[in-house]
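Supplementary Data S3. Sequence and structure tokens for construct A.
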Amino acid sequence: MEGMKMKCPRCQSDNREGVLFCEECGAKFEVECPSCKAKIPVGKKFCGECGNLLSKKKATVKQMPYIDSERKNVTVLFSDMSGYTSLTERLDPEEVKDFMSRIFGEIAQVITKYEGFIERFIGDAVMAIFGVPKTHEDDPIRAIKAAREIHALVEALSPKIEEKLGQRVTMHSGINTGLVVTGEVNLEKGTHGITGDAINLASRLEGLADSGEILVGHETYKQAEGYFIFERLEPVKVKGKEEPIVAYRMIAPSTRRTRFEVSAQRGLTPLIGRKRELEHLLESFGRAKSGRGQAISIVSEAGLGKSRLLYEFRKAVAKEDVTFLEGKCLSYGKGVAYHPLKDILKSNFDIMEGDEDHKITEKIRGNLNTLRVDEASTLPYLLELLSVDDNSVNKIPMSPESKKNRIIESLKRITLKGAEIRPLIIAVEDLHWIDKSSEDVFKEILDYIPEAPVFLLFTFRPEFVPPWDLKSYHAQMNLNRLSEQQALEMVDCLLDSMDVDIDLKNLLFEKTERIPLFLEEFIRSFIDLKLIEKKDKYYLVKNLKDVNIPSTIQDVIMARVDSLSEGAKEVVQAGSVIGREFSYELICKVMDYSEEALVSYLSALRDSELVNERGIFPQSTHIFKHALTRDVVYNSILNKRKKELHKRIGLTLEETHKDRLNEVCEGLAEHYEKCEDFQSAATFFKMSGAKATNSGALTESVDYARKTVDCLEKLPKSEDVLKKIIDIRTILGIRLMDLNYFHQSKEMVSPIIKTADEMGRTR
């Protein structure tokens, strides 16, 4: 009887049960630790990162979900091998296959580490997408990091075959960011259909890159500038592009790792709207310094200033005799156990990049002597955390759980001992990305700080639920949006002007809802795209329809949307088509879900703080928390799908309000226009115009009449349609005269004679 088969998620080949690598392409089979989410080779009983006992069930390869078609901003990586031709000419085909399988297997691990999707291997090249199936707010940075690691691993493997080839084997890569349509993606079956110019340009950049080079397109450069050092190349003509393209050569990573660090390097505005919060942090630190340990969690959505507040606090205590240690949780670090704690240890022990193992050991040993901490019970476990070889921990017989407890005890010991010498501040950013093992350490330390001069500062987003309870010495600080006056002050600072056009300010407030990051990104985008210029005042120089949402903001929002379940995502997409707000009654009729399922999905949207609820169920209404969220979600839906939803919503509204269409005629007109049912749209735009006229809203009445004409003129020219055009143009001309727009009135009625002639010819 044939044994069980394991299907490779990359090449879809069947493999014998229990193998660690795909026997066809070399991809590594892994399972995920249910505790810390680390990737573990198949067949292991315990997690090597956190010591958790793995499931006794047979390990299976993690399969990716089915993904419906979407419009998405993604980052595309093409990486190709230099020297492959010599490889095939000088080596036996079997040797080539073994070598390439090993390289492809390790490349697959790198791309998976940064949560990219291997779209395909093509000969000696790989194409990977970052942002499918899930958007991350740093996909361009992930793609560049992945490319650098891919280059490094191939260079490390090259010496093994250099003697046979007579040359080195290296990689060269092209990376580009832009809009694609994902098609109907089923990663389990290997079907994709991802299309878009962003893919073609990434391929062209890879073709331009010399051996060892990583070239990126302009949008990738814009989002990764500051995280890496780039060199701008001369524009070059490429196939398929009318105009020459500008490419950027990635030179090296910078020392900056977070969005705030990059912003700080560009220059910061004065601290606005957070002075009271800063004073509260300083007061709490004062209590901690006197020996009454304190902890504060700073909580807010992305872009409201958590990192800036922390930066200002550090500046304020810079002259104090304290130890200030910082750890950062990275978006791709959830599977890396103790990640922020490693940052803290390196800072505490002054460990530099490139320090050799013996140097690291000397630094930690000297620090432990200063603290008067027992070396035998502490040093081996700290070295283990920092991946120092020959640390002797593995020579001590103990279970993984015991080892984890010893590590926690070691960290707790040096924390409390260090605080005895001078007050200690530990700041940990972005706990929504924290790994489980680090969580356990901070939970333990929190219990021991009330009688110690320790001040713990955490920052995270609302979706993160800490595993510890708030205590009398642990408070939560919530950051809110700026007030209108504070936002005005920030706009003036960003534009270096106290006299900014009121229309520009209103547009910024409408788009950003006074979120500091969004204000900054929109203004940068307006300046880059030359939508504004300075004369007497700043003002828009292009039509407002030209204003797009900056990709940095889109990625922040879509990262949250992509974390939803498939059903919740479908509901929020349908809600975005309805509008900024949607009733439970309407979404229930539009979506084909049971009441139980729909209530669950709406609850998930509220929990994620994408929408708020108003009213009492089932007469409740759901409102997008930010207008930008609604816009980003709406723009992500395929045009074909949007038309289907607009049509369904229009028909539903018409049915539920058949005896009172006047109440919803404006919405019906918009939905029918967007699904290109111009006959129905014209009917309801005309009804909306009459409604506006009856209430004395002549300006709105004129707008609806214009839209009625536009819709009618898109219909086949039948006698009935032409008569309706004449009628509505006549009405529009009269309303324009009522508003004293005589010239416009004449322009509107002038075509009537031509339309009448056409009507005569249709008879």
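Construct B, processed identically:
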Amino acid sequence: MITSHFHKRWFFLRTETDRVLFASIVFSMLMVLTGIAYTGRPIFLFLVWNLFLAYIPYAVSNWVQNNPGWVEDKRKFAAAFAVWLLFVPNSFYLITDIFHLGEIERLPLWFDLVLLFSFAWNGLLLGVVSIRQMEKTTAIFFNQNLGNFFVYPVMWLNALGIYIGRYLRYNSWDIVTNPVDLASDIVRMLAHPLQFKYAWGMVFCFSLFMTLMYEVLKRLGNLLQK
């Protein structure tokens, strides 16, 4: 009875994966609070927001995986998948926040590194776990394991989303609030690939890197379970 009440109240700590991710996120939050206390300035609060955005796709995939009715209902699944696909690049986007290393002069560089890397690590974990959950869910929905036919396109779209967010400065919700400019910039990139060779170079490298990280962590997880 107590366990059931706990799971209902703290639904986001329901599984061992939830609890491990929560502990890792708490560590990142404590690092930010320590940095604020040390400098007396509201530093790195953008990382907290970015981590919140990174958590959304995990929350969606977790919900769909634990509620079979959403998989059986095509409309619900399509809506959930669209939201998930829109926000999942935010998870891996946190990797690029390492660019901010050394910006706060009053902080020791080692502290800066641990703080930024912890957020990047949490983003990577949330992204990998979320994609794995959705990979399993789509296998149920389509009644077959899509495997790499699911992972590779998702990672490519993730990498494109990271570039769009980091360098073109669009957000996930711009697809609703500013769709014309967003679509125009994407079409320009597709129509003139040589003019955007560095952009496509980043997309290629990041998609390959994220795919490798996904496959490595997935296989390590399988090995540890044996």
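The CA atoms of residues 207 and 219 lie 18 Å apart. The chain has a mean pLDDT of 91.
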